[in-house]
Amino acid sequence: MKLRGLLTLAMATQVVVTATALLASHALTGAAGGFGVPQIVALLASAAIAVLLVRLCMRAIETSQDQRTAAALADQAKAAAESAQLTQAVIKTALDAFIQTDERGIVLEWSLQAEALTGWTRQEALGADVVDLLVAAPLRDGFRQRMMRLMPELSNTPIGIGFEATLLHREGDEILIEASSTALQIGGRTVINNFVKDVTQKRAAEEQLIQAQKMEAVGQLTGGIAHEFNNMLTVITGTIEILADAVKDNPPLATITKLISEAADRGAALTSSLLSFARKQALQPAEIDVNELLEELAKLLLATFDKNIQIVTRLDGNVWLAFADRGQLSSALLNLAINARDAMQDGGRLTLRTRNVVFGVREAVAVGAGYAGDYVEIEIADSGTGIPRTNIERIFDPFFSTKDVGKGTGLGLSMVFGFVKQSGGGIKVTSEEGRGTTFTIYLPKAETSTLRPTGYDERKVVGGTETILCVEDDRDVRQYVTVQLESLGYKVIPAGNATEALAIAAQGTPFDLLFTDIVMAGALNGRELADEMVAARPSLRVLFTSGYAHDVPHGPGHATMGAPLLTKPYRKAELARMLRRSLDTAVDSVGDPIPTPYSVQADVEGFLRKSERNGR
Ligand SMILES: Nc1ncnc2c1ncn2[C@@H]1O[C@H](COP(=O)(O)OP(=O)(O)OP(=O)(O)O)[C@@H](O)[C@H]1O
Ligand SMILES: [Mg+2]
Question: How far apart are CA 324 and CA 343, in angstroms?
């Protein structure tokens, strides 16, 4: 507006000046004079003034235009600086690493997070080829080809593309990443912006969760089946002895009963493995000196394994006592050792190692251990064939075996897994094909206050004459137990559930011991029944039985010992011993009954609550 005004003013001035000059010359020469020298002079003067005015105006216009351009440039520069600052701030605060390259993959920008993710500093990365930095040498060509294929897609997609890749940290570790890339055209060249996220841990955790859920599901199924089988086997293993006794003078029948008995034993061994996998094995945890156990194992292996397998022990002399079931731990270690032997057909080295470890939450979770704290680590390493990657996540599955039919049932590692988990510990496996496999077990450190198991005494079968209230909801098992107890000399009052048992007690019927299943259908379970009865009669002795074990609790204070718990299936001799233990321990030196509360550990309660929740 200003410029147009200036020009209009200049033109108006020029018109006035010309008109005035012409008028003045006319006045001087008179009207008749025509167009003479004075007019020409006047016109020239007005033209000179016009040129002057135009000059002035042009200068004014130029100055104003210059100022405007300068202001616009300053605005642009400011906006660019602000945008660069903003970009830098986004890059700096982004959780993901930022890597910018040109279209050939040469690094143009490398954020702090990229330094942390890859181990390469910005200084080292700038100007380098991103593929050389982050991809293992044998995979580089393939990676570049993939990048080239992605380029057209990348350039055509304003929102960019996401992909996953395995990269290499500067230290050589693999990192699994998720990246999102966009291509930008800046000043005629292409830059590629990549935001890269490390998902190694996340993926490992997801895989572990899936594996844990799978094991849980298979475990529940297996546990349920094994539980039912146990009840049936309890009837067979128990009654077969009575039958054998009756037919001992008839050799053919005696042979048949022996066959039945052996088959039942095999069945019991199988259900025991399955229960162990399902973490439902009745464990008797105690303080264990794992070094002593491993030395015993080493001796056994030395005597039985081929001489081309070298057995090495590396035991930490200061290793803590572990808290676990000794028998089960022995068989778990033996299972691992046998697997190791099978993987070393041409000989090799088996190393047994112990040490103490203190786990934070992260480490505990990584090995699937129950809680952060102190653990005893037992490692069994072999130099055998190793386990192929594709198999490694299946080795703990029940019935997974790569051994020939008849050579392996595939239950060994499932048992080890179940036992370790049930003991509140964890297990880890690392393996490299052709180099060997290492299984590492973590067992909770024992609390020093833990009671030692009293163990079974080896006295011969002793019966009694006391009266036993026998509560069992499975009709067959109840019948069998009644027969067993009677054959031991006891008087038996059978009851099909807690309500029946309480009614019998309410009638004032005398009895000395309550023998009850823990998990029972009905209003009360075995534990609640015992609670009610002992509240009314503190000197009452109680013996529990169960096919299911309580889940061993994690953390301190788990005094599992001293629980009079008879696990199914059991033999007559075990029943007899447990009864005498329950009946006799509560008698003082002069034979008077001591009113001992049966004090069953907190974990039985935990188990009961759980089974109630599950509606068992
Ligand atoms: N130390 C090892 N080295 C190589 N492979 C192993 C090792 N331990 C286990 N495996 C693999 O894991 C599979 C499962 O082992 P697991 O102990 O559960 O069953 P199994 O040994 O085949 O049979 P079972 O132990 O019931 O007799 C094995 O068949 C084998 O393929
Ligand atoms: Mg095995």
Answer: 27
> How many Cβ atoms from other residues are within 10 Å of residue 135's Cβ?
19
Q: Is 436 in the pocket of ligand 1 (CB under 6 A)?
A: no
Higher pLDDT, 211 or 491: 491
CATH of 94-198, one of 3.30.450.20, 3.40.50.720, 3.40.30.10, 3.20.20.240: 3.30.450.20
Distant-in-sequence, close-in-space partners of 526: CB < 8 Å, separation ≥ 6: 471, 498, 516, 517, 518, 519, 520, 544, 546
Between 91 and 316, where is the model more confident?
316
CATH topology of domain 285-444: Heat Shock Protein 90 (3.30.565)
- Where is pLDDT greater, at 14 or 588? 14
* Test site for ligand 1: of 401, 411, 415, 427, most ligand atoms within 8 A of the Cβ: 401
Top CATH class, 467-613: alpha beta
Beta strands 426-432 and 436-444 are: antiparallel
**Is residue 403 lining ligand 1, measured as CB closer than 6 Å?**
yes
Three-state secondary structure call for residue 613: helix
Say if ligand 1 is within 6 A of residue 444 CB: no
